[in-house]
Amino acid sequence: MAKTEHPVKAVGWATRDPSGVLSPFKFSRRATGEHDIQFKVLYCGICHSDLHFCKNEWGFSQYPMVPGHEIVGVATEVGSKVEKVKVGDKVGVGCLVGSCRGCDMCSQDLENYCPKQILTYSAIDTDGTLTQGGYSNIMVADEHFVVRWPENLPMDIGAPLLCAGITTYSPLRYFGLDKPGVHVGIVGLGGLGHVGVKFAKAFGAKVTVISTSEGKRQEAIGKLGADGFLNSRDPEQLQAAAGTMDGIIDTVSAVHPIVPLINLLKPHGKIVMVGVPEKPLEFGTFPLIAGRKTMSGSAIGGLKETQEMIDFAAKHNVLPDVEIVPVDYVNTAMERLLKADVKYRFVIDIGNTLKSD
Ligand SMILES: NC(=O)c1ccc[n+]([C@@H]2O[C@H](COP(=O)([O-])OP(=O)(O)OC[C@H]3O[C@@H](n4cnc5c(N)ncnc54)[C@H](O)[C@@H]3O)[C@@H](O)[C@H]2O)c1
Ligand SMILES: [Zn+2]
Ligand SMILES: [Zn+2]
């Protein structure tokens, strides 16, 4: 029988069932092991994956669930063998808290593709208990899965980099969309999309935002620095841009047409799916065949690359646009997220608004 009680008392906001409604929740965290870092959570971003998970839209949610995988705070206790940080240092945890550390993927710093990876919440930990995420006052994780937080990076604004940041940074890098001279399309201007635009611009690429919301045109170009904007509901605009892009990162969270996007690619162009709609997408193969195009997917990033991404963001001032909210606003935030009514990421001010008793 799995042990369910740990010695460290914790509080958070959890959902108990696929209604997805979150409410205060008392639970426990394990004692700090020799390789562990325990930290006081100060900020946690709200990712659309939290919403998919809360409502069991992917079919593998485990309850009760404290979501949150864009977690930033300050180390309060470190195990005797921890080398990465000391008490008082700023730290972050993203989507992963464990992996096998020995497989082919792990040995290439790709813990994100380890078959035994352990997600930050809604997963079974090595001791048989459920992992719980960052909508909580305290966190503990093996130092391997903890990121050192750069001194000059604000913790509130920077928190979304731990998922939205790495999820766009990693495919831009891996698929060679990280240099001047390449034309990158970013589909969906939400949490992931807006950070993707900022990273692609920081790499020197030409960036076109592809969105269903005409209202985002001005902001995409004027504020986020995109070079162009395509309204994906306007076939004429899409036709005019056909065959112009080297790569596309698709961040859309719901079912949407793919063929018009594939048509935007040059021959040998690549479309990388990072959004995870709850139902399958449909597409014919002709648009891929014509021009030997590639369709791929990408999941977050390994820990080495996550640290590299955070350091790059701090150095090049790649900062998410956030709306900071108190923890008791989280259900409203989820409703607004579903309606794409946020510019562009909610971050919960855990440190100042989550009561610890
Ligand atoms: N691959 C990964 O590792 C990874 C990591 C994080 C998030 N995700 C997934 O990426 C997706 C986006 O996450 P996010 O946090 O940026 O979400 P978000 O809600 O902030 O952004 C999603 C965007 O998609 C747009 N959109 C929604 N429905 C649409 C439709 N039918 N047609 C066109 N556009 C539509 C919204 O307007 C919004 O701009 C989610 O599915 C999330 O689960 C994947
Ligand atoms: Zn996420
Ligand atoms: Zn592994």
TrEMBL record:
Belongs to the zinc-containing alcohol dehydrogenase family. GO terms for molecular function: oxidoreductase activity, acting on the CH-OH group of donors, NAD or NADP as acceptor; zinc ion binding. This is 8-hydroxygeraniol dehydrogenase-like. Keywords: Metal-binding, NADP, Oxidoreductase, Zinc. The lineage of its organism: Eukaryota, Viridiplantae, Streptophyta, Embryophyta, Tracheophyta. Residues 20-348 form the Enoyl reductase (ER) domain. Signal peptide: none annotated. It comes from the Eukaryota. It holds the Pfam family ADH_zinc_N. InterPro entries: ADH-like_C, ADH-like_N, ADH_Zn_CS, CAD-like, ER, GroES-like_sf, NAD(P)-bd_dom_sf. Its cofactor is Zn(2+). Homodimer.
